[in-house]
Amino acid sequence: MSKQNTEIHLSEQVRSLVLSSLENFKAENINVIDVRGQSPLTDAMVIACGRSTRHVKSMAENLIFTAKQAGFQPLGVEGEKQGDWVLVDLNDVVVHLMLPKVRAFYNLEKLWSVSEQHRASANS
User: Fold this and answer.
1) N or C: which terminus of the chain carries fewer CB neighbours within 10 A?
2) Residues of the chain falling short of pLDDT 50
3) Which domains does the chain have, with CATH numbers?
4) CB atoms within 10 A of CB 115
């Protein structure tokens, strides 16, 4: 298997692990944004909501534990103490766990869709 195919396979493994972990912990409104070719930092962003700061923190803790058990060491974790927005950087996948009001305020999905539309029109 080539290095590129191996990287894609690992990226898919991480994405699958993230989605499984979030679904098991009852994450709400899970959205996966493929940013390959759009961001040099990661291949995908996963955005999901929790019902409370405790729920967001629990989802993050479980995700970190599950990733480590599978051999994927998080590069960084931000926002664990506050719990209204926790970012877990798993290199190939960056996970944003947020309260619904925080997600609505920052609207990351719109940011990335505007960015994608802008690139598409620039390439036309």
Assistant:
1) C
2) 1-6, 115, 118-119
3) 3-123 (3.30.460.10)
4) 13
pTM of the model: 0.84
Contacts of 117 (CB under 8 A, 6+ apart): none
Instruction: Report the side by side order of strands in the sheet with 85-89.
Output: 28-34, 44-49, 93-98, 85-89, 76-78
Structure tokens at 96: 């944003």
Cβ contacts of residue 58 below 8 Å, gap of 6+? 25, 50
- Shortest CA distance to 97 belongs to which of 38, 55, 39, 44? 55
Q: Which residue is it, tokens 């994927």?
A: 72
- The partner residues of 32 in beta bridges, in order of sequence, read 46
